[in-house]
Specification:
By secondary structure, the chain is mainly α. The protein has 2 domains: 75 residues, no CATH class; 349 residues, no CATH class. Its main location: membrane. It comes from Aminicella lysinilytica.
Length: 472
Amino acid sequence: MSFIQFDFWSLLLNPFILMFVTIALGLLFGKIKFGKFSFGASGALFVGLVIGWAVYKYADQVYKAGDDGSAVYKVATNIFVNNNGNVVSDYFFSASLVFFISALGLLAAKDLGVVIKKYGAKFVVLGILITFVGAGVTYGATFIVKGSNAYAVAGIYTGALTSSPGLGAALESSESHANEVATDYSNLKESEKVAAIKMINLGDKYKLSTKNVPAKITKDQQNEYVKNAVAQVGMGHAVSYPFGVIVVILAMNFFNMVFKFDVAEEKRQYYIEMEKASQNLKVRQVKQVPFNIMGYSIVCVAGYLLGSINIYMGPLGYVNLGATGGVLIASLLLGYIGDIGPLHFRMDPKILSEIRELGLVFFLAIVGLNYGYGAINACISSVSGLIVAVLGFVIGAIAILVGFIVGRYVFKINWVMLSGALCGGMTSTPGLGAATEALGCDEPGAGYGATYPFALFGMILFTILTFKLPMV
């Protein structure tokens, strides 16, 4: 009898081990200098993509081999059965996101009043503009990539602009739209019937043609159409999302080099602007505490609840801010208020910065681990997957570039605020982390928070409209 048992392979698939190993290696990679540039905390994302791809591939082999009673099979089964194919559970993802966003919001809250007064309307325009440009480029790409379907296009759009709430709207709209198409099959045009049959055939269950299904499809075939349509949204999002994230991270680190402006000077000018703008604004003096666990917990709970509220918006259906938007707005508002009775929300920036950094590296590592296989496999296994990846990168790049040009040269917004607004317009939390790290300050969080709700509205609106437009 052995007194010590150690199963290396099951431990290798353990989400705790994977997260910490990814973070450690990612931060080491982030320290490597490429000229004057280094990835910093974003290194966790890139290392996570590679590790996630390798781990998913190994777990898939173990799971398909069948139950042999081993610990590694149980861990692999957990990935595919309980986590819906994610290497790390969504609970870890949500927790890391809440820690990062809440700390960042509290850090940026002190300037919220001045920021809204000075830039408010401009942030509204940027939020709608960036999402509109992204939608336009995505739809325009269907004229280049023949055989596109509205479902995959909607997924590519939400992935390229890194929007989880947008994905939720796309999944809901796709299911509703697919049900309408499937039940109305007999009244479709011939070209639409061909597209519907092609969608049904995407699964392994059927190999149909319009010749043997000329009039109507069975209930089971209708269900297969809906299932495959929703899966197409998920596929487009999963493949394009990492490349959308990469676009924003690169933009935050390289726009200053490409457009030749000095980040240090931008920061200096920003603080001068804020000081002038705040002279005519009454600022309430708030006591700062080292850290208030009760206050911090209230921020997280209130934000999560706020993000869960569904608001009816007519043709758009029910819309919510999600965890990101809810926690960010709650932390900005409560941080701006400062305190309510015994609850203190204005805390030591050093402590909040550590929490922000911890949440960020976990968040980036989990994004890499969960999306690594889909992203890398799409690039190396098929031409269509590679096209989706390229589209995700191009759509994200054009959307953020247009936002930058309008924000900087038309609205004359300082880079400190504009960087946050661009990330808000892209609804990109990883990008916001890159912006705060590249600038060495937390002020971009206020621009992100002011732009995000309007970008979210634009994302949902244009995602729904995607299903109303003809695909070529």
